Amino acid sequence: MLPLAYPRRWQLASAILLMLVLVGALAPAFLPWLANGPPLIPQFDKWMHGITFALLALWFTGQYARRSWVWVFAGLCLYGAFIELGQALLPYRTAEWADLGADALGSIGGFVIAALVTGGWCVRAESWLQERFG
Question: Which of 8, 13, 55, 58 is most solvent-facing, going by the fewest CB within 10 Å?
């Protein structure tokens, strides 16, 4: 983990974020259009997986040094597999190998963005908050 002033708070926020993603992935689609996505967006489910995992990658690359990113990527892949396993066990959800691919591609996209722009953003956010609010 990067030298953060409030590592426990970041870890708690991470745990809450992962639980929210899990609940969203395992909950029944409560709106009909969420089940298959809007008709104008083909493969809506895959896009949602990719975007979600890109955001998760961006979140965690803010907290961990680049040398740890391979472990973050492995953790995100395992987390995606855990979600798919959970979906396979539920009668109202389906598990697909393509979802795992979308998770991995989304994560890679997040890592590319982090490498180019946002990596270590949590340190900068803490610094900005410290300057702003003391």
Answer: 8
